[in-house]
């Protein structure tokens, strides 16, 4: 059911988002502080209000779930229930279901929520699959066995539940076959942190009143400007009068020359006096007009700045709106991986623009997931290292100048530089010689490369190589930079520096081939005047030394692929005269030098994004209009750094790709339909595919040929996929051969068996996605 009334729908959307967030944060707090009665009372109020809103709009399923959740919280208040982990899991699952149902009511998209199951769980039911170890059925039962698997429902204290209480309006819609066991459901909120969109901003009345006051000031200024228009008209009239008197003055002057009659002299005297008076009035009026114009211009500028600041502040939201999403994420992932992790949040009150807040969610999600999966050790491993069993992930935000700094720090293993180098070699990103010349910071920065992952096995949390490159791209989209520092066995820290100036930014206006280009000043580290002697050649590239470190430099015209008109002062060889302007730009951890003809000026610009027809133009972030009305392209500092580095090194990846033949795969699948379809998918992606009809056939073909990877089903005759994998791993030459299992078996124990057998990845057919398969192959093969 979708809420039809537009206004009510938007109101319910804002209210539901806020109240569900408060309920979730409150449950997280009570899980750590179960004796906090004040917080419990607050949750009861939030639940009651949300229930009333849902009842008013006729959202019966949401109302029923919230009512039961409210009863559970009331039971805790009475001391009849406790905040044990099992109960907390039920409450979180209920909130997830309520959130999905609310989304359905707002958007009309099907929520696919089994309300009966969630309600039964809240009421104390346990839903579980019938044991696979039950006694075998009789031959007579086998004759009439239904092909649809059945599930049993065991309900605790069922004598206390009536049919109407338990089923309500869902009795006719629910059958045992659509009950999914709670144990089978994966934690859905692992990715929910990035799915929440902040599209409503609550504004305090005081802020609106202040904006209205500034709007009133603008009205007064407008009226004063209108008055000045009248004064300007008076000046115009006086000027016309003076122009008309010019003719009379010429005639009179001629008569005076002819005669010095007393009457003419008096008239001439009066005329001069009148003219003098008019000129004095005009002068006074002009002075007054100028003074008032300056005052009004200053006042208008002040009011405009206040209004702009006020409107900008309306878009500012605290970082806690995003930071608080990760409490639940860390709790669930740590529980899933049997780790003990405490999330520490600092600087949640730091205000940032809403757009920054939106774009921050995905980077933080990927970084925190990687920290939990890669960096944080198990409690036993931490104790063996002399660390406390509970790890800490610190999420911190603060303002520094015009930038917002967000830091994510953990006290886990840190980055494994040897493994990063090995992965870079295996992926063909760099050669051994190139890696040997890299600094520690440069090697650490390799984790942001597209598709980079040190995992050899794909999990639900990480290992697909689609994490940190997304982080890097999103940070660049925000005109920011990211740095990583790591100490072995002490932890890792990611620092995100984001510009807080969304609407306007200060920029240097540069001259290249008689055209102006703007470079945002936030990326500029320093501006130098160089001599020819300070620019030398290193491995064929122009280079200078900054603090004894080599920094590549290039003419901006070369980077933009424009005709290079080197100024005359820069063509003199072996001169010590410092006359070549060079701008040192920082992009992440990289420094580059940009040689230019001239710096014209510095001014504040409004960045206009590129048209949808031109989504991405290399080296440019957008355009702006300068004070003189000229259209000016705004440079992208990250692209400039990439362009310089790209021109100064051989693209190893392209060389490898050009010399490699098509990768060869062995596809082992007993179903001819699936085997044919998967072969088409793989061949269209550029792979050579050899097929096998079962595990034994696959093993024989493996021994007869040479393959770069194996894709296998699990349940097959003669030799199943797990046994095939185990047999392959017994041979030393196949221990590094990538093996991907694709099957309908989706239980955690099945995936665990696949990993133990030696599979690198385990994909399920139930939610089969050919893109995921090809991405996994691209990373492993």
Structure notes:
By secondary structure, the protein is α/β, with parallel strands linked by helices. The protein folds into five domains: 6-131 and 151-194, HPT domain (Four Helix Bundle (Hemerythrin (Met), subunit A)); 205-314; 318-499, Histidine kinase-like ATPase, C-terminal domain (Heat Shock Protein 90), CATH 3.30.565; 504-653, CheA-289, Domain 4 (OB fold (Dihydrolipoamide Acetyltransferase, E2P), Beta Barrel), CATH 2.40.50; 661-780, Response regulator (Rossmann fold). 47% of the residues lie in helices and 19% in strands. The chain has 25 helices and 25 strands. Strands 12-16-17-15-14-13 form a six-stranded mixed beta sheet. The chain has a five-stranded mixed beta sheet with strand order 4-6-7-9-8, with helices on one face. Strand 21 (664-668), helix 21 and strand 22 (688-692) form a beta-alpha-beta unit. Helix 1 (6-32) packs antiparallel against helix 4, helix 2 runs antiparallel to helix 3 and helix 8 runs antiparallel to helix 9. The radius of gyration is 36 Å and the shape is extended. The model is unreliable at 127-194 and 648-660 (pLDDT under 50).
Distance between the termini: 47 Å
Number of helices: 25
Question: How would you sum up the major sheet?
Answer: 6 strands, mixed
Overall residue-averaged pLDDT value? 76
Oligomerization status of the protein chains: single chain
Into which percentage range does the β-strand content fall? 15-25%
CATH class of the largest domain: Alpha Beta
Low-confidence stretches: 127-194, 648-660
Per DSSP E runs of 2 or more residues, the count of β-strands stands at 25
* The CATH superfamily title of the largest domain: Histidine kinase-like ATPase, C-terminal domain
Helix-strand makeup class: alpha/beta
CATH fold-type name of the largest domain: Heat Shock Protein 90
The strand order across the widest sheet is 12-16-17-15-14-13
* Shape descriptor: extended
